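Recap from last week: sequence in, structure out.
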Amino acid sequence: MDSFAFIVHPITIQQIKKIWPAIRVFPDFIVKPNLKNIPAFKVSHIKEVRSIQRKTIEGFFVACPLTPRYLLEPNQEFVLNKIIATAHFAEKLGAKILGLSRYAAIVTDNGAKLSGNVGIPVTTGSTFTAWSVFEAIYRTVKSRHIDLAQATLAVIDVDGPIGQLCLNKLAEYVPEIIITGKNKARLEKIRESAQELYHTNVSIYEDARQAAKSATILINASSAFVANFDIQDLRRGALACDVSLLKNIASNAASRRDITVIDGDVIKSKYPIELGVDTGLPKDMIYAAMAETMLLTFEEKFVDYSLGSQINPDKLEEMANFAVQHGFEVWVPETQIA
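Predicted structure tokens:
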């Protein structure tokens, strides 16, 4: 049976203690300074993931025990080496491909720094995440009779792979697009390319708050550890899809009843999936990045897939086809397909 692995990062000391009972007896003030010395370890063994093609695979959640505080530290070489060591650990467990959490993707330049340094192929899951965002938005606007031809789309952090892929897909449908990001030179190239290919008007905003105020549809693909805008910046009646690292829009959706907020990166399989760990999602739901790793394993496509900041847009359709073939569906509760 082919197997995969997916790297996870605990956010707090309490999460580390929850997934590694052996250290529960130690107080936080002892565990905290020693996090750097804790080796990678297995969080759970996912014994069976089934496809509608009657294929079965298995997998592992493996922990790189660095909280966000350590991931942000200046010694990025140390952080990279810890993630590489976690990849080697996954390989020893028998995994044939490794999926990266959003945190791991950020500190490895969207997985590019791992290529050639680990013995198994790697994917960030950005392709299927972007496809799931497009699918979630498309189904939501269709069910709510929103005219995309009259919409203004804003993509926050378009210089990341998820933002770029979402832009490329939705540029076919909307006349006005606003983009924000950190790399001004890259933003200009993205703007020129989108205008030439799709004949849509693309504007660059330096202020994410102003972009949010101007958009009827917003994709928050920010990979920043600190939020640079919040839900109160959105215009009344807006549709927002939150696939950001912090989920600063989705986590505060209850405070704005006048807008529609969707996650966009939640996937449901036709069959139950016992992950053996609490991801914060409803039962049998998984994140799109996890699903991409599983789908590549089903397909025995053991190659580096979603790596780097620029991903071939053709992979969107390929991953969408894999999802249909194996029974994985983008989960948007109000618009589920019967």
